[in-house]
Specification:
Largest sheet: none
Number of domains: 1
Shape: elongated
Helix content: over 70%
Number of strands: 0
Order of helices and strands: HHHH
Length: 127
Amino acid sequence: MQHSRSISWFTFIGALAAAVHYAVAVGLEGSTALAPGWANVSGFLMAFPVSYVGHRTLSFAGHNAPHQQALPRFLVVACGGFFANQVLLLSLLRWLGQPFWLTLGVVMVMVAFTSYILSRYWAFKSA
């Protein structure tokens, strides 16, 4: 039961953070002519606090990892996920020529699964 509850919260919080990331990135890229890569960075920076606070308090609340351990680990997971996101996004934009909004959405879904596994079994796990 605890694992399925964790997955449910992770999905909800992840979707909320992804919505923030996506809205900021697509909004900036479309309205300010900000380059896709920089718009994506801005979206990530706005979504990170939503993701960390939500996952720490809801998705992995029972893991009891202290903040001093969980935050740096989650930052590593999030930055690794963002690095993969950025490389995939910019590569696919160049190779496939699809719109930014579509490519970003696809890439964000691709990276989410790995982020869950690393968060559950490392970032929020007590030492």
